C-alpha cells in the first residue's frame, strides 16, 4: 500500500506569527516538503493545480519536474490536474514530458476543479464541467494510445492526423486516477475505463465516502475489469499529530480556525467526530486511519493534506517525521495484514519504476556513519447505483475485449 502527502499550495497567513510568506518562499517550502517526504520513507508526493489566489501551484507539471530532479525514489502525482479547463493536448504533452524526465515516477490524478470563476478565464462554463471531463479525458486517452489522431468534439478545435509528442515512456502512459469529492459521474468514468478512483475524503461524512466508493467498485466490475475487490481506490485525509491528544488539539486549533474550508464547522472537536480529520496522539491518529477501512474496504493509496492553513514549514516537516517514523509503519503492517489475496496491494506502476524497485530490493541495506545526517455530506443519486450511466452499456465480454486491446497497446 502506498502512503504519501500532498499540498494544495495555499499561501495563508500564519495565525501565530501574523506572517504571510512570499510566493517564492512557498515554492521553496513545497520542494523541501517533497524531499523530506522521500527521506522519511513515504511513497508519494502530490501537488494540486489552482489558478486563483491564495494558491501558488498553477503549473504542477513544472514543479513536479523540479522535485523529480531533486529526488530519486518518491512517486510524483497531481492532486489534481484540471481536466476541464486544460487542453487535453497540453496535458498529454506535459505529463509524458514529466514521465520521461523522472523515469516513469509519475502518475496523474485528474479532476474538474470546484472554483467557479476559473472556468470563464479559460473560456469554459462550470455548468459543462461533467461534459468537459468526459470528452477531454476520452481525447487524452486517444492521444496517448494512438499516434495519428483524427478527432472532433464539442469543446475544442478538431484534430486531423495529429501526434502528441513526446510519446509515453515505453508506450505506457502514466496511470490515471479520477479525483472527486461528490460526483458519482466521475466514479462512473473511472470505472468505465478501469482506472483508479481517488476520493478527497477531507470534509465528508463516512456514509458519503462509503456510497461513492461502493458505486465505483460495482461499476468497475460491471464493465469487466475485475471483481469489486480488485478496483483501485485511493483516499485523501488530513492529520495533525502531537505528543498527546491535548497538545495536538492546542497546536492545531489556531490553524483549523484559520482555514476557510473549516469555518462552517461548529468546532475542531466536532469536525474530528464528523469527518475523516485526524488530530491527536500517535495512537489516536493510527486508530482513526485504520477505521477508514471499515467503510471503504481494502484500498491502495492513502494521502494526507500536510501543509494547509498557514502551517509553517518546520511544523509540516515534524508531521512528516511522525508519519514516517511512528504512523505509516504501523498502518502498513496492520492494513496489509488484513488484505485478502484478491485485493491489490498497490496501484499499477510504470514498468521502468518496477524494474528500478526490483534492482533496489537486491541491494544490501547499510547504515550511515553516525556523524552524517540525511538531509459536506451529499446524498448520491440512486440511479447511478441501479444502472443509469453516462456511458453506453456494453456486454462484459466486449468490455474485456476492449481492456485486453488497451493492455496490448501499452505492452502490459
Automatic annotation (TrEMBL):
GO terms for molecular function: monooxygenase activity; oxidoreductase activity, acting on paired donors, with incorporation or reduction of molecular oxygen. The keyword Oxidoreductase applies. Keywords: Monooxygenase, Oxidoreductase. Residues 1-294 form the Luciferase-like domain. One of its GO terms (cellular component) is cytosol. PANTHER family: BLR5498 PROTEIN (PTHR30137:SF8), LUCIFERASE-LIKE MONOOXYGENASE (PTHR30137). This is LLM class flavin-dependent oxidoreductase. It comes from Scrofimicrobium canadense.
Amino acid at each position: 500500500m502506498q502512503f504519501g502527502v500532498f499540498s494544495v499550495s495555499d499561501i495563508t497567513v500564519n495565525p501565530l506569527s501574523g506572517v504571510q510568506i512570499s510566493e517564492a518562499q512557498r515554492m521553496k517550502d513545497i520542494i523541501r516538503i517533497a524531499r523530506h517526504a522521500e527521506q522519511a520513507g513515504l511513497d508519494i508526493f502530490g501537488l494540486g493545480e489552482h489558478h486563483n489566489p491564495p494558491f501558488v501551484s498553477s503549473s504542477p507539471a513544472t514543479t513536479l519536474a523540479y522535485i523529480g530532479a531533486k529526488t530519486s525514489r518518491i512517486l510524483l502525482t497531481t492532486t489534481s490536474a484540471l481536466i476541464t479547463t486544460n487542453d487535453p493536448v497540453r496535458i498529454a504533452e506535459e505529463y509524458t514530458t514529466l514521465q520521461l524526465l523522472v523515469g516513469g515516477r509519475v502518475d496523474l490524478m485528474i479532476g474538474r476543479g470546484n472554483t467557479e470563476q476559473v472556468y470563464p478565464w479559460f473560456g469554459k462554463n462550470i455548468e459543462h464541467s461533467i461534459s468537459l471531463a468526459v470528452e477531454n479525458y476520452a481525447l487524452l486517452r486517444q492521444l496517448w494510445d494512438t499516434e495519428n489522431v483524427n478527432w472532433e468534439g464539442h469543446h475544442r478545435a478538431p484534430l486531423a492526423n495529429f501526434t502528441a509528442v513526446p510519446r509515453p515512456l515505453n508506450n505506457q502512459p502514466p496511470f490515471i486516477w479520477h479525483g472527486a469529492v461528490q460526483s458519482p459521474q466521475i466514479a462512473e468514468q473511472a470505472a468505465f475505463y478501469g482506472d483508479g478512483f481517488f476520493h478527497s475524503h477531507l470534509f465528508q461524512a463516512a456514509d458519503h465516502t462509503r456510497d461513492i466508493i461502493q458505486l465505483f467498485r460495482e461499476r468497475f466490475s460491471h464493465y469487466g475489469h475485475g471483481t469489486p475487490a480488485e478496483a483501485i481506490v485511493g483516499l485523501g485525509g488530513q492529520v495533525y499529530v502531537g505528543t498527546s491528544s491535548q497538545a495536538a488539539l492546542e497546536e492545531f486549533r489556531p490553524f483549523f480556525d484559520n482555514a476557510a474550508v473549516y469555518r462552517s464547522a461548529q468546532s475542531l472537536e466536532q469536525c474530528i467526530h464528523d469527518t475523516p480529520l485526524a488530530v491527536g496522539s500517535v495512537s489516536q491518529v493510527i486508530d482513526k486511519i485504520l477505521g477508514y477501512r471499515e467503510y471503504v474496504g481494502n484500498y491502495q493509496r492513502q494521502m494526507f493534506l500536510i501543509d494547509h492553513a498557514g502551517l509553517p514549514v518546520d511544523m509540516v516537516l515534524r508531521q512528516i517525521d511522525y508519519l514516517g517514523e511512528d504512523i505509516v509503519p504501523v498502518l502498513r503492517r496492520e492494513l496489509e495484514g488484513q488484505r485478502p489475496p484478491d485485493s491489490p496491494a498497490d496501484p499499477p506502476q510504470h514498468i521502468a519504476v518496477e524494474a528500478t524497485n526490483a534492482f533496489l530490493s537486491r541491494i544490501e541495506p547499510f547504515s550511515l556513519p553516525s556523524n552524517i545526517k540525511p538531509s459536506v455530506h451529499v446524498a448520491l443519486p440512486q440511479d447511478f447505483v441501479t444502472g443509469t450511466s453516462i456511458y453506453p452499456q456494453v456486454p462484459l465480454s466486449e468490455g474485456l475485449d476492449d481492456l485486453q486491446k488497451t493492455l496490448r497497446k501499452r505492452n502490459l
